From TrEMBL:
Protein name as it appears in the record: Pentacotripeptide-repeat region of PRORP domain-containing protein
Organism: Glycine max
Family according to the record: Belongs to the PPR family. P subfamily.
Positions of PPR repeats: 159-193, 194-228, 229-263, 264-298, 299-333, 334-368, 405-439, 440-474
UniProt xrefs under InterPro entries: PPR_P_subfamily, PPR_rpt, TPR-like_helical_dom_sf
Keywords: Repeat
Lineage, highest ranks first: Eukaryota, Viridiplantae, Streptophyta, Embryophyta, Tracheophyta
Length: 512
């Protein structure tokens, strides 16, 4: 069934034309107020264990940005034609960067990958396959993912990290059984699982809130004669901590000690975080003193945890005391710690001090980063300080040269939609797309639902169609909102058309 979209479009104002916020809370020079920072010495690891699932994104390049701009306005079946005029050679670095940028658009990522394969300069790499698997996993195209895994096997590019990545996508899709089965297939592909591989599996299950299944895998390690190590216990400890299950946290701690493992700084940090999440701040502080009494030096991550926890509960003075202690402890300044202080000031509605910390971060050379501004914008929006939020958003990229992330754009679009400033929301959306950043499901949902509520159904359908084109399955609530609006407007045929497309998307997996 074919139908035409209306040619009507919004007027998309330039956000830079907005007046600068000039109240006392945000004078033009507010970000330039600094406090001196004492000389610090380099610090050791400040975070808990991390598993990198594919190579970190390279520095942004104009070629990748240009390709993503082209692809963001291209239907999948015309990718070859759209990229025909691209002069950039598909080097491994360029291919990886584009695939990472297209992580929210799995169908486009696959189309680009197939285009790149046909170019004479193209070379297959493990990292590129991993980036593509990540994008396809987000839209649950697991059949296609296993086609890629088989292709990697033929080219001898498989690693244990490949199976960790596939398992993570299954776990995120609430398919814990399939995630576990993925690891069980490793030997079929010529890879022997080691304790580190089981740690990865436990980690992906915990991070996807499948902690009970993770604990079962943890117990299974012994049956395979793979003894859990300190990292195994730490991962499980963090899983139960994120669930705020203090009973299980304490059980794992006791088992650790029974097996001869002493709680280290990382473990203490995780337990403190569990108590902070449960709003048992005095217990968290008690653990801090217990750790110091044992001769363990608190890490920046420990201080960050306490600052963030206390700050979020408006125990600002105590949070700032820990910040001062952290600065006096000999650690170099770190962005996460400063971001925690920014958040603490925001929770107490001391925005001048939050801006001052941004200036301090700039002076120290540690930021600010997109996370810093996401924190500030969140609190400004919660306080309905819309004009100020718009001003901060502008200065973020202009004055500070800090590139907004998809999360930043999501915050701004949601705010503008809630304030019924849809022209401005679309302007932000267009700016994002112009920079080659593709929206995810939640951002599409926010804009489409807002357009429906304003009875701007032509535009709502346009963005809904765009979401389907990149292979994103709409949430049931989102489609219900669109369908109801279309039916009320006597556009049942369009609602039926979309229902058929969604059904096809659900039943028709991608093919090689």
């Amino acid at each position: 069934m074919a139908f035409l979209w209306s040619s009507k479009r919004f007027t998309t104002p330039n956000l830079l034309s907005l007046p600068k916020y000039s109240s006392a809370s945000l004078p033009p020079s507010i970000f330039d107020h600094h406090h001196s920072i004492p000389t610090q010495i380099p610090n050791g690891p400040s975070e808990t264990h991390k598993f990198a699932f594919h190579t970190a994104q390279p520095r942004p390049t104009p070629d990748a940005e240009a390709i993503c701009r082209i692809l963001s306005t291209t239907r999948g079946f015309t990718v070859d034609a759209s990229l025909a005029a691209v002069s950039a050679k598909p080097s491994p670095e360029l291919v990886l960067e584009v695939l990472n940028r297209l992580s929210n658009a799995g169908v486009l990522a696959l189309s680009f990958f197939r285009w790149a394969e046909k170019q004479s300069e193209f070379k297959y790499t493990t990292e590129a396959f991993h980036a593509l698997i990540e994008g396809l996993g987000k839209i649950r195209q697991f059949k296609m993912i296993w086609t890629l895994v088989n292709g990697m096997k033929q080219r001898k590019l498989l690693t244990s990290e490949t199976f960790a990545l596939v398992a993570r996508r299954y776990a995120r899709a609430r398919k814990a059984k399939e995630a576990i089965e993925t690891f069980e297939k490793m030997e079929q592909y010529g890879l022997k699982p080691h304790a580190s591989d089981f740690n990865r599996l436990v980690d992906v299950l915990c991070k996807s809130k499948c902690v009970e299944e993770a604990h079962e895998v943890f117990d299974k390690m012994r049956h395979l004669r793979l003894d859990p190590d300190i990292k195994s216990y730490t991962i499980l400890l963090e899983g139960w901590s994120q669930q705020q299950n203090l009973i299980k946290v304490n059980e794992v701690c006791r088992e650790m000690e029974d097996k001869g493992f002493q709680l280290d700084v990382v473990a203490y940090g995780i337990i403190m975080n569990a108590y902070c999440k449960a709003k048992k701040f005095d217990d968290a502080i008690g653990l801090y003193h217990e750790m110091k009494a044992k001769g363990l030096r608190p890490s920046p991550h420990v201080y960050c945890t306490l600052i963030k926890g206390l700050g979020s509960h408006k125990r600002l003075d105590e949070a700032l005391e820990f910040f001062e202690v952290s600065k006096a402890s000999g650690f170099a300044p770190e962005a996460p710690t400063y971001n925690a202080v920014v958040g603490a000031y925001c929770w107490s509605l001391r925005m001048d001090d939050a801006y001052r910390m941004v200036g301090e971060m700039k002076k120290c050379g540690i930021g600010p980063n997109s996370r810093t501004f996401d924190i500030i914008l969140h609190h400004l929006i919660e306080g309905r300080r819309v004009e100020e939020a718009c001003s901060v958003f502008q200065r973020m990229s202009g004055e500070f040269g800090c590139k907004a992330s998809v999360t930043t754009y999501e915050i701004m679009v949601r705010m503008l939609c809630n304030e019924e400033r849809l022209d401005m929301a679309v302007a932000v959306w267009d700016e994002m797309k112009g920079k080659g950043i593709l929206p995810g499901m939640h951002l599409f949902s926010t804009l489409v639902c807002a357009l429906c509520h304003e009875s701007k159904l032509d535009e709502a359908c346009k963005y809904f169609q765009e979401m389907l084109d990149v292979g994103i399955r709409p949430p049931a609530k989102m489609f219900s909102t669109l369908k109801e609006a279309l039916v009320d407007a006597r556009m049942e045929h369009i609602a039926m058309h979309f229902a058929m497309k969604i059904d096809k998307l659900r039943k028709s997996p991608l093919v090689a």
